[in-house]
């Protein structure tokens, strides 16, 4: 079909209400035509711009039809209503649809489409109070003595390997097995391995046009994203590491319609490459380059992965999938600007997350969740989890193929707004592409040195100490960490005891408030303002929220006192992760420790709270590391503490205390890992509905694997994908020896047909999220309810109709029986096969044409304009109408003809249906 094809939404009369037929409803006829537009408001709903709301007795269906192609980045779109997150819509034929059970009176004008915190369409979202510019540090942190970003002693060599493409679950097209190897020359012994995985980006290009398909169409060239990390690979290889950067273009081209956004496929691709490397290392048949450079030279028990954007989520899941029989071992990972749709934590795997402050793709910095969840996911998990907030860095420039002008492939600055004071191209804080890649390479190398060797000289770049490296150039970096060589002293929850003195207030608050757990929301305004408090997009509605202590004061000396652990042991530092509310500038506080004998010491922090800059209309509420060093001469007995207090030293302040740790430099071995805690995998299930029962129960199995000794807790959410019942969620505890959770799903018996081939609109979804002593692999699944009723057939009783000027061309389409879902179909305008002139757009009511076919020439016929008329038969109904209003003064001559075609789909429409209309002058009938 021509790209010029247009689409109409057709009114249907149901129970006295007008309902609009919309693309993307659960049951569809033939594949949706190439171009279409949702244009007419629905009754019980509204239409505004590219948004449509359809309301029924059970809730609302929200549809968004963007004018332009969605960004080809890592983040996925979400819908917000009046600034509040509703969920992540699913795409079908270019229209994104989200069902919200129970939603009433939603206005389309109040909807916003947001991707990674950036508004793509609709009203701008509320933003918090903020400083106008960044606070200049009083002094620069000390330089590390041994710079991990300094070029090593080895020369390097490189080559590309290609293997047979592999089939990945859920993808029709096989995935390429291609990688760029950069290795040291002359390095003796078996070398640690660093494997890199790029994220979601365009896969092909022609001139300045970018495409997301695979393999590339004839005449188009591939975008070699896997070659974009040459700076990092060359640095690491010069230091003695063997580096392998793998290609994932096939996954990028296919991950839009899978529930996990491709993380499972990416993980399998990573593991397949690692298995292949291990096989070559042990003598498997290989090319001359592989034999010379890799065979016998790799230490496959010392592997670190590096993932960028969706590649970050992919390598993390590869670590989650670890098995005792693997011929390799992932001992660390670096996640660069990663997505975190599944909230999966690689238990026992040291992790560094690089968060670019000017990220214009994953703008909400959701990768912070890997650190926050890692802080408390499993007893015995002491693996360092650290955040590196890189000021002035954007999402794309870590990869040269995603950087404008660096290669022949088209690319852009993902930040988008060149005039932005904090992140625009003229901002003093913005990094050049070369500086950003150099800084990224330094921090990747710091992690490699820390995770792959016994050398801890670079750990202070990662663990919140606040040092810097000369090789990182002008970049300003903030770091904060959990776990490692730390002991928790404060983890705010409902058991936390605190009190205030002076002009101060304190409250325990929820980061987000989706469920009712009896605590106040932290009230951070703005979408994605805090990466610490992001609910799972579109998946959880009732899960417990992370909590914090909100402490504010209006007079210096005011304080918040908390009960402290009695024994800090040999630790001499206390690290607090603190969010500084940007509405208050230049605030600070001290830490007062008191022991059981009444002795106390008031400690100033190392450094000050930084006022983070406003960028893109918002400030990231990010937890900075505030370190307090207990003086060596202090008389306070740290083995007998009774309390610790935060004492405001500025005239006023407002902070959020996330957690606190007694800390010292170094790493600590973990006893917990992804192989010895409970592992959960949701399995899809199919059940056949019994029309004789009013209510039935089906079960979705969640198998539990691994040998584990500690009880595990997970949160399991059930959602009705046909969206007539809503959501339910609860926590489950699994004890050692238990091998399955059977999740009950209650559904109504019915004697109407349900189209279970459309996953987004039928059956029930199940999502599992780890809470403690657990990992999740396949975290989403479904229960498909097979209909016992026969599939109805579509027909038109009267295909040939007559209308006159001032009247209506009308056909009635009918299903042979009702369905449990909306049915959508379309009729395409074609050139009439009978003699006579074809109906022109000028003969239709002009307002109707303007609303439904904007920009079309009045002189065009319906087929020339490529008109596609959508119709919808609502659930539990059987009829819809297709209508065209004719002008009273239409110049019809002796009459005009209109012909539409409903194409066969071999499911609902067995044979093509041709609709014909004769439109005559007034009084001619």
Description of the structure:
This protein is mostly beta strands and 925 residues long. It has 5 domains: 44-125, Immunoglobulin-like; 156-346, Rossmann fold, CATH 3.40.50.1820; 350-672, Galactose-binding domain-like (Jelly Rolls, Sandwich); 678-786, Immunoglobulin-like (Sandwich), CATH 2.60.40.2030; 794-920, CalX-beta domain (Immunoglobulin-like). The strands form 11 sheets. Strands 14-15-20-16-21-22-23-24-25 form a 9-stranded mixed beta sheet, with helices on both faces. Helix 1 packs across helix 7 and helix 3 packs across helix 5 (310-320). Residues 1-26, 28-43 and 128-136 have low confidence and may be disordered.
What's the gist of this structure?
This protein has eight helices and 55 strands. The chain is globular, with a radius of gyration of 30 Å.
Which sheet architecture does the biggest sheet show?
A: 9 strands, mixed
Strand order of the largest sheet: 14-15-20-16-21-22-23-24-25
Determine the N-to-C terminus distance.
35 Å
Quaternary structure classification:
single chain
Q: Based on Cα principal axes, name the global outline.
A: globular
Domain module tally:
5
Helix content: under 10%
The counted number of beta strands is 55
- According to CATH, the fold-level topology of the largest domain is Jelly Rolls
Spans of 5+ residues with little confidence (pLDDT < 50)?
1-26, 28-43, 128-136
Task: Determine and state the CATH class of the largest domain.
Answer: Mainly Beta
Query: What Rg is obtained from the alpha carbons, in whole angstroms?
Result: 30 Å
Overall mean pLDDT stands at 87
Identify the CATH architecture of the largest domain: Sandwich
Contiguous helical run count? 8
Q: What do we call the CATH homologous superfamily of the largest domain?
A: Galactose-binding domain-like
């Amino acid at each position: 079909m021509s790209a010029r094809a247009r689409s109409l939404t057709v009114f249907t009369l149901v129970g006295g209400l007008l309902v609009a037929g919309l693309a993307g409803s659960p049951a569809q006829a033939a594949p949706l035509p190439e171009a279409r537009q949702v244009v007419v408001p629905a009754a019980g709903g509204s239409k505004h711009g590219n948004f449509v709301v359809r309301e029924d007795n059970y809730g609302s269906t929200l549809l968004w039809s963007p004018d332009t192609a969605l960004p080809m980045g890592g983040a996925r779109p979400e819908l917000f209503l009046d600034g509040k997150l509703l969920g992540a819509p699913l795409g079908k034929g270019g229209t994104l649809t989200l069902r919200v059970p129970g939603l009433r009176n939603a206005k389309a004008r109040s909807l916003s489409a947001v991707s990674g915190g950036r508004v793509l369409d609709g009203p701008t979202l509320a933003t918090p109070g903020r400083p106008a510019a960044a606070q200049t540090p009083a002094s620069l942190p000390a330089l590390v003595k041994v710079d991990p970003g300094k070029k090593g002693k080895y020369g390097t060599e490189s080559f590309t390997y290609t293997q047979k493409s592999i089939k990945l679950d859920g993808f029709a097209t096989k995935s390429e097995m291609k990688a760029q190897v950069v290795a040291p020359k002359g390095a003796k012994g078996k070398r640690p391995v660093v494997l890199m995985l790029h994220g979601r980006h365009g896969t092909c290009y022609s001139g300045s046009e970018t495409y997301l398909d695979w393999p590339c169409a004839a005449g188009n060239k591939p975008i070699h994203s896997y070659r974009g990390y040459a700076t990092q690979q060359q640095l690491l290889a010069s230091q003695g590491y063997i580096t392998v950067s793998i290609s994932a273009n096939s996954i990028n081209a296919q991950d839009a319609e899978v529930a996990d956004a491709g993380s499972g496929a990416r993980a399998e691709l990573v593991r397949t490459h690692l298995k292949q490397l291990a096989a070559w290392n042990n003598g498997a048949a290989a090319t001359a380059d592989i034999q010379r450079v890799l065979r016998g030279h790799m230490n496959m028990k010392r592997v670190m992965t590096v993932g960028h954007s969706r590649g970050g989520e992919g390598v993390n899941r590869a670590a989650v999938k670890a098995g005792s029989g693997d011929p390799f071992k992932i001992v660390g990972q670096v996640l660069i600007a990663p997505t975190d749709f599944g909230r999966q934590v690689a238990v026992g795997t040291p992790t560094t997350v690089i968060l670019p402050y000017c990220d214009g793709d994953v703008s909400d910095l959701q990768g912070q969740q890997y650190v926050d969840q890692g802080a408390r996911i499993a007893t015995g998990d002491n693996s360092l989890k650290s955040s590196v907030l890189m000021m002035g860095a954007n999402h794309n420039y870590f990869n040269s193929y995603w950087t404008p002008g660096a290669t022949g492939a088209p690319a852009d600055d993902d930040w988008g707004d060149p005039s932005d004071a904090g992140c625009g191209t003229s901002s003093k804080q913005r990094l050049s592409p070369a500086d950003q890649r150099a800084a990224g390479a330094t921090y990747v190398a710091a992690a490699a040195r820390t995770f792959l060797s016994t050398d801890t000289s670079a750990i202070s770049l990662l663990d919140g100490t606040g040092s810097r490296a000369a090789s990182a150039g002008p970049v300003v970096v903030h770091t904060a960490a959990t776990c490692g060589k730390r002991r928790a002293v404060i983890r705010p929850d409902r058991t936390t005891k605190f009190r205030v003195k002076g002009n101060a207030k304190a409250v325990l608050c929820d980061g987000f408030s989706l469920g009712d757990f009896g605590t106040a929301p932290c009230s951070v305004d703005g979408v994605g303002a805090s990466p610490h408090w992001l609910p799972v997009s579109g998946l959880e509605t009732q899960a417990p929220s992370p909590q914090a202590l909100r402490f504010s004061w209006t007079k210096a000396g005011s304080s918040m006192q908390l009960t402290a652990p009695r024994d800090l042991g040999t630790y001499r530092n206390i690290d607090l992760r603190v969010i500084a509310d940007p509405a208050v500038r230049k605030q600070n506080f001290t830490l007062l420790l008191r022991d059981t004998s009444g002795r106390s010491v008031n400690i100033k922090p190392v450094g000050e709270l930084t006022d983070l800059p406003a960028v893109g209309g918002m400030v990231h509420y990010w937890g900075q590391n505030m370190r307090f060093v207990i003086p060596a001469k202090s008389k306070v007995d740290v083995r007998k503490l009774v309390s610790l207090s935060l004492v405001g030293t500025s005239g006023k302040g407002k902070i959020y205390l996330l957690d606190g740790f007694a800390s010292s430099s170094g790493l600590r071995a973990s006893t917990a890992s992804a192989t010895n805690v409970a592992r959960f995998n949701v399995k899809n299930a199919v059940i056949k509905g019994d029309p004789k029962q009013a209510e039935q129960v089906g079960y979705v199995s969640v198998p539990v694997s691994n040998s584990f000794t500690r009880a595990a807790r997970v949160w399991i959410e059930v959602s009705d994908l046909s969206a007539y019942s809503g959501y339910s969620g609860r926590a489950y505890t699994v004890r050692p020896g238990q091998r399955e959770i059977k999740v009950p799903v209650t559904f109504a018996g019915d004697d109407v047909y349900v189209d279970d081939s459309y996953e987004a609109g039928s059956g029930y979804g199940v999502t599992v999220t780890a809470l403690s002593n657990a990992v999740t692999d396949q975290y989403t699944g479904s229960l498909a309810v097979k209909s016992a009723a026969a599939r109805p057939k579509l027909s038109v009783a009267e295909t040939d109709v007559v209308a006159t000027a001032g009247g209506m061309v009308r056909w009635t389409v009918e299903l042979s029986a009702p369905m449990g879902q909306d049915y959508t179909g379309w009729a395409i305008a074609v050139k009439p096969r009978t003699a006579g002139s074809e109906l022109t757009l000028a003969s239709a009511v002009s307002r109707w044409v303007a609303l439904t076919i904007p920009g079309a020439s009045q002189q065009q016929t319906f087929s020339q304009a490529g008109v596609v008329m959508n119709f919808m038969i609502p659930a539990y109904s059987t009829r819809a109408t297709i209508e065209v209003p004719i002008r009273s003064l239409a110049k019809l001559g002796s009459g005009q003809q209109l012909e539409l075609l409903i194409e066969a789909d071999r499911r609902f429409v067995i044979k093509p249906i041709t609709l014909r209309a004769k439109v005559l002058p007034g009084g001619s009938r």
